[in-house]
Amino acid sequence: MTEPTPESVPLRYDHLPATHFIHRAAMRTITTPAGSGVDAIVEIDVTDETTNGAGGLQGGMVATLIDCAAGSAVRHHVGLDSGFATQDLAIHYLAALRHGPARAIARMRKVGGRAVVVQVDVVDMGDSERLCALGTATFALLGERRSS
């Protein structure tokens, strides 16, 4: 398991019980470089608990990682008072993610009045940052956006 550094902190979902699987997955956010065009980065380690029978990160964990990274981008860069919800999630699995950590890199692509579209690349940091999955998430905006 990768230890948190000043550049990484555990992903927090304070509204969920401590026993919820999202906490047990030990996802963490990584500081995004200023001016990089990246809106959020979330990582998870590849462990015996998160792999499938073939030794790769389980597809459902990849989907959860994409959803969490995209949601982090929306939460931190759109700013909502009443929240948002995943409306659609499309994933293209390109290669098995075997080494880890798995890193989801989220970029806002479209911010509209009622929805936000986020693109997420998932790479295997232990395999030369090999691209393993592409995700597109659409979030419905449920409340009023805060003025900047």
Automatic annotation (TrEMBL):
Thioesterase domain location: 59-126
Gene3D superfamilies per record: Hotdog Thioesterase
GO-annotated molecular function: fatty acyl-CoA hydrolase activity
Stretch forming the signal peptide: none
Keywords, in A-Z order: Hydrolase
Annotated InterPro entries: ACOT13, HotDog_dom_sf, PAAI_dom, Thioestr_dom
SUPFAM superfamilies assigned to the protein according to its UniProt record, in alphabetical order: Thioesterase/thiol ester dehydrase-isomerase
Segments traversing the membrane: none
Homology family: Belongs to the thioesterase PaaI family.
NCBIfam families: unchar_dom_1 (TIGR00369)
Name assigned to this protein: Unannotated protein
Organism annotation: freshwater metagenome
